[in-house]
Amino acid sequence: MTKDDILDWANTCMEFVYEDLGYEKEQVLHSIIHLDEKTPHIHCVVVPLVKKLDKRTNTERYTISKK
Questions:
Q1: Helix (H) / strand (E) containing 5
Q2: 64 or 56: whose pLDDT is higher?
Q3: Which of 1, 25, 39, 49 could form a disulfide with 5 if both were Cys (CB 3.0 to 4.6 A apart)?
């Protein structure tokens, strides 16, 4: 694969993370392409955030999902 092919593939993979898995760009802390094995792959570190009502301030806030 050429460098452009790898970048196109990586962008398609990240679109999957955003569109199909439903994560937002702010939730992705780190992603890296690994070419050290037979099959190229991407490692993503994602923080699963959910909106919850803060009863103390009566506002909705993002918090880390415990599920």
A1: helix 3-15
A2: 56
A3: 1
